[in-house]
Design a protein that fits this description.
- This protein is mainly β.
- Helices cover 9% and strands 50% of the residues.
- It has helices at 113-121, 154-163, and strands at residues 11-20, 26-35, 47-50, 53-55, 67-70, 75-79, 82-92, 100-111, 128-140, 145-151, 165-176, 182-191.
- Strands 5, 6, 7 and 10 form a four-stranded antiparallel β-sheet that branches. Strands 9-8-11-12 form a four-stranded antiparallel β-sheet. The chain has a two-stranded antiparallel ribbon with strand order 1-2.
- A hairpin with a 2-residue loop joins strand 3 (47-50) and strand 4 (53-55).
- 20% of the residues are buried.
Length: 204
């Protein structure tokens, strides 16, 4: 009999053994082994998303290995006349590969532009339309995560401040390197940012 200690990495492993005798005859055999590390007490087990990479459970609509996690509640801040919304989401790219691209289109129900303005003059109620209010493209390096923030359009910024809150639909198209893209959606509700304080002019 013969034995050896082999170091395994998390995920799939291939073990190959080669034997030879004094006459020069050789024989080989290989076996595939999947290694799942033991979880320390009190900690949740991580689930592998690709061989050799351990991470959170894979979400529907995301390329294998990418992540979309909630880091906190959505929050809005003023940026001049516009509003910046931190969606509270983090997008992540798996280690050991090319960078990932996340393209986000945000939409919300807003009064319908020129037609709504004409209807208002005729004293007809405005009908809300789903309108694109922001676009964002993020490139995330392998093994990294970035917060997803969007800048609202002037009309959306004005509407958010007027209503006090807004429900925003997010369509996120992601890909790893040049691989085929995948699409997932999220819906967030954000409150209007606090009104900016005006500085009082000093009298000379």
């Amino acid at each position: 009999t013969w034995s050896a200690v082999v170091k395994l990495k998390p995920g799939a492993n291939t073990i190959e053994a080669v034997a030879s005798d004094n006459a020069g005859n050789t024989s080989s055999a290989s076996r595939k082994v999947v290694y799942t590390p033991k979880t320390p007490p009190g900690q949740e087990a991580a689930k592998p998303v690709v061989p050799g990479i351990v991470g959170p459970p894979q979400l529907p609509g995301l390329p294998l290995g990418t992540t979309l996690t909630t880091a906190g509640a959505p929050r809005a801040t003023n940026k001049g006349r516009l509003v910046i919304v931190d969606t509270g989401l983090l997008v992540g790219c798996p280690a050991g590969g090319p960078p990932c691209t996340f393209e986000t289109v945000a939409s919300a129900l807003l009064p319908g532009g020129a037609k709504a303005a004409a209807a208002a003059k005729r004293r007809k109620p405005r009908k809300a339309r789903r309108t694109t209010i922001a676009r964002k493209k993020l490139v995330v390096g392998a093994g990294s995560r970035l917060p997803l923030r969007i800048r609202l359009s002037p009309a959306a910024s004005k509407a958010l401040r007027a209503k006090g809150a807004m429900t925003i639909a997010l369509k996120i198209v992601s890909r790893i390197g040049n691989a085929a893209p995948a699409t997932t959606t999220r819906t967030i509700t954000v409150k209007a940012p606090a009104a900016a304080k005006r500085k009082k002019a000093r009298r000379g």
